[in-house]
Amino acid sequence: MSVDLEPVIDSLKNEFPQDIIDIKEYRGETTLLVSKERIFKICAYLKDGLDFTFLADLTAVDYLEVKSPRYEVVYHIHRFGPECEENVRIRLKAELSEEDIEIDSVTPVWSGADWLEREVYDMFGIEFIGHPDLRRILMPEDYEPFPLRKDFDVRNREASKRSFEKALEEGAD
Amino acid sequence: MGVNSDPLLGGEGFLTTTIETLANWGRKNSLWPMPFGTACCAIEMMGVFASRFDLARFGAEVARFSPRQADLMIVSGTITYKMASVCRRIYDQMPEPKWVIAMGSCTCGGGPFDSYAVVQGIDEFLPVDVYVGGCPPRPEALIDAVIKIQKKIEMQGAPLV
Ligand code: SF4
């Protein structure tokens, strides 16, 4: 684990002894696997207690046929600091199973999570509880599939065509 | 068309033609393009309008961002299904007669994007007059397409009303 992050991880472990499931270190990047029930609390603590004010990215991965639980929601969180060792980045992952595809929204912590969570919902169908406005953001609003799921055929244009034809009809009058 | 400058007829000269031919001659030499740029190809289209390639030499420099004032739609860029309904609506708003250039591989047939969101060729929902292949096509290729449109207007014309 990178030296700069040690105090952060110690502090997290202290605060959430049960919920830091795994810590991985790869090429100087630290990834914590955390329990999804506590994601909101952990994020709020990172922001308010440890000054991680910037959510750099929020995305998801579908591990269909690779591992179970199937989904992972990934958070890249950054802390700016005048000192080099304060300027660090940490990655959180929370696992979601197919049956229980919900997780707490972190939009109340970082308002920048709003559109990122909408995108994850749009592409994977993951529901963010407590999100202020969980609608599709890229695909048409009446689109049904979730295109970045691994069991979706990326060449299947049927749903897009249906939305297109509907939009044409609505635009005609 | 015929030109006559016989002194018996006053020497001033006059020309005989049909009103359709005259109108088509005007249309052909003063195309008003509606640039529908959605991706990288649009950058190349800007190059066509700018001074190095200068589409003004062919009378088509007045790019209109209002479809009501345009008669040539240059669709340049990837068209997604979400954008396609907008593209069709803008085409419908253009007054007749009107022509369409499909610029770039994306508009001709989906280009590199064989995906759930991208239309595999705008001829799925628009009547295309000239296809320009390339990713992106060179500006010369677009100029060639405009000249082909001009030829088409000259040869086929369009009804007056
Ligand atoms: S044809 Fe190529 S250059 Fe043109 S919009 Fe498509 S990807 Fe971009």
Task: Please provide a brief summary of the model.
Chain A is of the alpha/beta class. Helices cover 27% and strands 27% of the residues of chain A. Chain A is built from four helices and seven strands, in the order H-E-E-H-E-E-E-E-H-E-H.
The helix content of chain B, as a percent range, equals 25-40%
The CATH topology of the largest domain in chain A is what? Beta Polymerase, domain 2
Specify which chain pair forms the largest interface: A-B, 18 and 13 residues
Poorly predicted runs of 5 or more residues of chain B: none
Radius of gyration of chain B: 18 Å
Describe the largest sheet of chain B. Answer: 4 strands, parallel
Low-pLDDT sequence parts of chain A: none
Number of DSSP strand runs of chain A = 7
The number of domains of chain A is: 2
Q: Strand-and-helix sequence of chain B, N→C?
A: EEHEHEHEHEH
Looking at CATH, the homologous superfamily of the largest domain in chain A is NADH:ubiquinone oxidoreductase Nqo5 subunit
**Proper CATH architecture of the largest domain in chain A:** 2-Layer Sandwich
Q: Which descriptor suits the 3D outline of chain A?
A: elongated
How would you classify the quaternary structure?
heterodimer
Individual helix count of chain B: 5
Distance between the termini of chain B: 21 Å
Strand order of the largest sheet of chain A: 1-2-5-4-3
Order of helices and strands of chain A: HEEHEEEEHEH
